[in-house]
Amino acid sequence: MLKKYRHGIARLFILTVFYLTALSLYAEQMSVLGHTRKDLPIKIETSNLDSKGYVWQIEITPNQNSQQIQVKLLNPNSELSILNNRALALARQFTLAQLPQINLDSKNITLNQDEQKMQKTHFYYGKYTLIIKFPKGFHYASKTDFSNLQQQLEPFCHLDESSTTNQSKLKPNAQSNLQLNAQLFVNTEGSIYQIKYSPLPNSKMIEILNAQFKKIRFYSYNKYGTPASFSVLQPIMIQCNSKNTNNDSNPVT
């Protein structure tokens, strides 16, 4: 949970590299027969409310005639009506085109009348199940690879402070490391749209850091069930003179 970052987190140059694949709503192929219920990819949206691991199940039924979808909450939470409504709102965002397309191989199977219609339209008009989760706090949907940042940023430890081209207010600390904070401003879609640094590094260092941070995505966030933008504080530490150290730091998560 990112709120813990205010108390300090792992240094960027020793961050464990991992990726959490962002969930997609776009069409993919699947094979279906008859009226079997099909599960959609799990939808995750974070919240300021504590859902205590509750999982919402939404039934989505597309209408072939109207080309619209109907949604039904199968298991409303008796204590979190706000998130019940938010789960339904997320389910209603689906359009027919965003539901998985079907692949019926008529060469190998005998299709009934309904299946013959589906074969022509490429859409399945049975029932879909959508699972929705609302973890508390701010969470990454995907991270970037920070493994090269130490090498890229260490040269900034040795800039000539008297140089007129060095406009950085960032200086090595008592441990000869560069330490700064990045305030990440995130929109309702989970994308970082602005970054503020303190102390302010020079423009080249900002360019390198921005290129990495803008690859990051967060899960979308709701505050009391309403989509909201947010900001998080990300401490950054660059180890100076790393070649003179044992250079065997272990990854920290």
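Next protein, fold it too.
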Amino acid sequence: MQPSPAGSRFTLVFLLLAAFLAGSALGTQLLDRVDVANKAWTYQRTVPTLSPLGSDLQIFTEASKQMYYQQNPLGPNYNSPPLTAAVFFPFVLLSYQMGYRVMLVVNVACNLLSLVLVMVLAFRVFAADPGGSQSPVVPVAIGAGLLVAGVSQFFGYALEFALERGNYDSLALTAMLAGVWLGDRFPRMIWLQVLSLSFAAHLKVYPALLLFLPLWRHGWKALLPVVAINTAMLFYFGIHRGQEFLVGLYQYASHPYIWVGNHSAASFSSLVLEPWMARVLPRPFVHGACLAFLLGTTLALWGLGLRKLFRHGREEGRALWALALSIPLMSALTSVSNDYKLVIMLVPVFLAVTTLARRFLETGRRRYAVVLALVLFGVILMQRSVLAPALIVTANKFPVVLLLEAVVCWLVWTGAASPPESETTA
């Protein structure tokens, strides 16, 4: 027996309220500030801090200065694409205090714009369904996604960490979403979409995965823009600087800094899985086997989801679903994914919560409520500081990244991105 629509709405409100309250207590470490033994309320650091404030911003600014003086800025703490130096050159002209304030505003503004873009894209996707634009469930579901994504994004650990470091994954996220929006809104303007996605790739490297999107939609027509724009960006400061970056990137990826706040598959494998598996596998094979298993699982989920989109996905929304599938892989695949990068999880979180809420309200099936509760718990874990005691085996965020990949893949395979007549009842 299925619950009534009123019962479904009550359950949805209860889940969101429970997640909000649990996130307030657990995600922001309120409970960890209670020292009962000493009868005291203690304030705990919520992110791993470095001195000075905005230390990454200072590294980028100094690297930009060196690049413009025709020096090689690459080193253990800096291995960004050459174009990044051009983006950060205005900070060379600012004082430390003014530069940090500007970067803080840029980060907050990019997160706001990203939330708006993903909401606009979601409305376009749901409006493509027959009756979707008139359905009262759609605004409620998008409101639920907006609530969860907005609260976790602006009151969670990831953005706080990014603000403390002065890092800029939020800018890359905005560029990725802008590329998807441009491809959806102006499909014939191939160069503009490629420019936006390429800009993201030459800020943070990992968005280069999305360059398959224009090739997927436009075929050979997109090849020239992809090659021309990315070649120009890579060699913006000359051939030698571009070559130095490629060599440095290989060395950086081959010798990653492993710690609990690096949520890549390589980090989780070294910190959690390999110590367990060393008891049952020969030591020479442990690292390779564990890493291959984690990366293989994430890649398989990504590939399965894309296969469904390629074969049965509707034109409207395919790029948004492909982005939601690709973002967890971006975190797992790169050997260094420090936790300030978690801001890019906005897209899979928003899309998963919105779709699960809509399906639950429309069908009343409890499986959607169960999966939604699992996603909400994952969001709490993701936005809980690694400095707080772990709620599960480890404070490393890779399990949440893998969970989001699996949930988005499952939603795609059960018809979330397919035309109505192709949807299953699973």
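About the second fold: The beta strands are 34-35, 40-41.
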